[in-house]
């Protein structure tokens, strides 16, 4: 079974969704036959390449409710073993990071890509790292097992950019407008950072050749997803 997870490094619910899905996968009887691949999605495609403080950036977008939004996510994250530090978090365009994830998948395989994805999410949400900085990305990639020289050369040029943009366009064509979105076998989609039990149920249903339909997207970061 192939599961494609559309997500953005800058999406807090994508971090929670990843953790919950992994908990479900660990309990799934057919886990050894499941291939997980992360696909790119950008919540803010036109985000600046200049880093900005997360709190200021979110307040400009959502106003006073941004404080409660962060608090809600932080509370839920703690239950999943995630330490969000929104005071230190830096917002920046995530295209470079998505290119790096593409390199990890195509050159090293899905398992390495999954490890890199976890490291990028932690760097962004817990460690206050600028995930638009090439040197920082190279260090993170090296820790995940990628060749540092190869990564540095890759990020210095445009390699992988066309492929990532094509995948971003494909996500739009699929009607994906909120993340995380989990696409099972290219046929069934589940949107949001659902509970682990829900993901486990879907895995079993898909294994039995039945589908699960995602709820309609909503704007902003709702209770389990982030939307444009």
From TrEMBL:
- Write down the Pfam families for this protein, in alphabetical order: DSBA (PF01323)
Q: Which UniProt keywords apply?
A: Isomerase
Keyword Isomerase attached: yes
- Which positions make up the signal peptide? none
Q: Name one GO molecular function term.
A: isomerase activity
- DSBA-like thioredoxin domain residues are 3-203
The domain of life is Bacteria
Q: State the name under which the record lists this protein.
A: Protein disulfide isomerase FrnE
Q: Which gene encodes it?
A: frnE
């Amino acid at each position: 079974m192939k599961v494609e997870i559309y997500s953005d490094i800058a999406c807090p619910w994508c971090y929670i969704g990843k953790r919950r899905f992994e908990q479900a996968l660990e309990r799934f009887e057919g886990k050894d036959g499941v291939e997980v691949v992360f696909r790119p999605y950008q919540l803010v495609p036109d985000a600046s390449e200049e880093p900005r403080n997360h709190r200021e950036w979110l307040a400009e977008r959502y106003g006073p409710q941004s404080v409660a939004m962060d608090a809600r996510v932080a509370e839920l994250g703690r239950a999943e073993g995630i330490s969000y530090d929104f005071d230190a978090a830096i917002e920046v365009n995530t295209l470079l990071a998505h290119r790096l994830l593409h390199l990890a998948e195509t050159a090293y395989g899905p398992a390495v890509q999954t490890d890199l994805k976890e490291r990028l999410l932690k760097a962004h949400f817990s460690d206050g790292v600028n995930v638009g900085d090439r040197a920082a990305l190279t260090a993170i990639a090296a820790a995940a097992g990628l060749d540092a020289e190869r990564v540095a050369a890759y990020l210095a040029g445009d390699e992988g950019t066309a492929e990532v943009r094509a995948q971003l366009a494909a996500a739009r064509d699929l009607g994906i407008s909120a993340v995380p979105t989990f696409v099972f076998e290219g046929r069934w989609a589940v949107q949001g950072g659902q509970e682990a039990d829900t993901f486990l149920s879907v895995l079993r249903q898909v294994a039995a050749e039945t589908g699960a339909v995602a709820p309609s997207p909503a704007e902003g970061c709702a209770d389990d997803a982030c939307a444009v």
